[in-house]
């Protein structure tokens, strides 16, 4: 009897989208930081982005700065699960770090999602091809890039971006 109840609860958590995002948030860990010898270096910043709720953006502007790039979609449960942690990080670092949230979805859908969830993240559509080192076939895909263009974190899947580990790394990168 108890095993049947637990099975039904587990099934509901997996099938019902809001509970799926909640469950993923509970299971999300802080992303891993690449060791110095394994870091890829982004040399190509040629990437134009169309702002959906902000101004258009030439990624060349981000060169020599700390940058977080996140590829996401409103229909993606892992993307939805990590959004609160990204919003919290954005709230505290938006004046020090370039945040680039990229989706292929249209303006209306994105604005509705942002309003519903009270997010104010800068969202973009790609106008030109993404630099090869930031290309992924999966979402969410998030990259933390230092001032030298080194990819410090390359994370596919949901993560807790508002962790003390990520914050300490950002603070360190900002002083370099």
Structural class of the helices, strands and pairings?
alpha/beta
Q: Kindly give the count of domains.
A: 1
- Rg result: 17 Å
Total DSSP E strands: 7
Figure out the total of helices: 5
- CATH fold field value: Glutaredoxin
CATH architectural arrangement: 3-Layer(aba) Sandwich
The SSE string, one letter per element, is HHEEEHEHEEEH
Lateral arrangement of strands in the main beta sheet: 2-1-5-4-3-6-7
The CATH class label is Alpha Beta
Offer a concise description of the structure.
The protein is of the alpha/beta class. The protein contains five helices and seven strands, in the order ααβββαβαβββα. Helix 1 crosses helix 2 (17-27).
Helix/strand layout:
Elements: H1 2-15, H2 17-27, E1 48-51, E2 57-58, E3 67-71, H3 77-93, E4 98-102, H4 107-117, E5 123-126, E6 141-145, E7 151-156, H5 164-175
Parallel strand pairs: 3-4, 4-5
Antiparallel strand pairs: 1-2, 1-5, 3-6, 6-7
């Amino acid at each position: 009897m108890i095993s049947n109840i637990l099975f039904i609860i587990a099934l509901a958590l997996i099938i019902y989208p809001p509970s799926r995002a909640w469950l993923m948030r509970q299971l999300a860990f802080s992303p891993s930081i690449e060791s110095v010898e394994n870091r890829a270096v982004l040399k190509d910043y040629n990437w134009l982005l169309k702002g959906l709720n902000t101004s258009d953006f030439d990624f060349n502007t981000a060169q020599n700065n700390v940058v977080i790039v996140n590829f996401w979609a409103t229909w993606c449960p892992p993307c939805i699960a990590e959004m609160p942690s990204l919003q919290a990080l954005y709230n505290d670092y938006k004046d020090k770090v370039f945040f680039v949230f990229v989706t292929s979805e249209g303006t209306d859908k994105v604005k509705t999602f942002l309003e519903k969830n009270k997010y104010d993240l800068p969202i973009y559509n790609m106008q030109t091809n993404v630099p090869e080192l930031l290309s992924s076939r999966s979402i969410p895909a998030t990259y933390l890039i230092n001032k030298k263009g080194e990819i410090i974190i390359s994370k596919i899947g949901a993560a807790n971006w508002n962790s003390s580990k990520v914050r300490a790394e950002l603070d360190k990168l900002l002083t370099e």
